[in-house]
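Hey, can you fold this one?
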Amino acid sequence: MSGWCEDETKHIESVIQELHINRKSCVVFTNHVIFDFGAIKITDALHTNTSVNCLHLVSQNISSHGASSIAKMLCMNNSIQNLYLCCNHIGSSGAQEIAESLKSNQTITRVSIAYNNICDDGAVAVAEMMKVNKSITRLFIEGNNIGRRGIEALLEALHVNFSITKFVLTQTELLCVPDASTTIARLLARNTKTEMKWRFCVLHSFNKDIPSDLIRHISEFIDIDY
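Sure. Predicted structure:
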């Protein structure tokens, strides 16, 4: 175990050295799990970095503590365009901090906070961010613990956000909203961008569980995953 920790530390230190001299364009951890400790170290080095455009910290056991450090970095970094944090444990508090930082960050275009144990409070914070952020074009927030209040807030935010071209939820999350077909139809009717392609990730039982009128609205305007 001690050898594993030493190996992790050496790898993180190696990445940090490259970040300090602006030699990396993408930070990706696949064979190493960095936890909050590593996330904090990496994001501290990204405060003044100008070369990295992609931060890929998927399945790294990052909690709200690590997310807080990431949020602080996003307030200062102007080079990162793609932020992938899916399959961690940032929770609602982590989502709230990241959402707050994205209100002023106009560089990032893609954000994934899917599968992060985010509840309604976190979703509402993300929705508030969506109302003011103009740079994000793809937002992945599926697979969390978002209920009716959070889903309704997200859908309402899409009424005033015309920069997002791909927005991902799951079938179960979408069904939290009563009369979902009317909500989606009203949302799509207010969208004046013909190139808009909202995409709702759905389960294999889509045709059985979703009302037929909602299937029609979604099929006309949204790419569907079966």
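The chain has ten helices and eight strands. Let me know if you want another pass with a different chain boundary.
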